[in-house]
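Hey, I was hoping to borrow your eyes for a little while. There's a protein on my desk that I can't quite get my head around. The fold is given in discrete form, as structure tokens running alongside the sequence. I'd be grateful if you could look everything over and explain what you see. Here's the protein in full, and shout if anything looks odd to you:
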Amino acid sequence: VLFGASAVRATQEPRISPRLGARLERSGSGEAQPVWVFFRDKGRQDGAAEARARALLSSRAFSRRVLRGEASGLGFEDLPLHPDHVSQVTRRVTKVRQLSRWLNAVSAEATPAQVRALADLPFVVRLDVVRRYRRGNPEPFRPLAAGTGMGVTTEPTSRGHDLDYGGSFSQLDQIKVPDAHDLGYHGEGVVIALFDAGFNNLQHEAF
């Protein structure tokens, strides 16, 4: 009973996001829009597909995953998109832009009619807009007066350090990066992972 109820509820949920629906209403009837097409699954994966996915991972990545208890070392996100899903989307859109095995989705340019046709595909779980960002004008730069403890450094030996950090000196000095450099630490062999999904954005696909 629970399975049947969840299946009915899944079919009743709109696959076109409200944001995409509003954009399609504002656009012309034949104007193509950049959209994300998210897939429900990746279909059956054969041994060759898994081998190709493993080839994309480094030995460091495998060691890290085994340390976390992932014995196989291969996750769902590593597997390629199902080729039949991709081919069916390709036949129904104006242009395919990108393939993302991590998001299990295809970015494509599609007209409103094409978007509605994509929403009828059984393996498509959701369609949404491709977000855009326009860079604004850079902030005007004004050097601060000397002796304020802030601003740019103009001499490589400023404050007794060997490196010229330019406009980033004040912020790096707060966490003692110049002091670490003076001790001979420069980050060789260190791997850093940076996750930047916005502030308090727990609904992002990364989580």
In short: Residues 2-12 form the longest helix (11 residues). The beta strands are 33-39, 95-100, 105-110, 124-129. The mean pLDDT is 80.
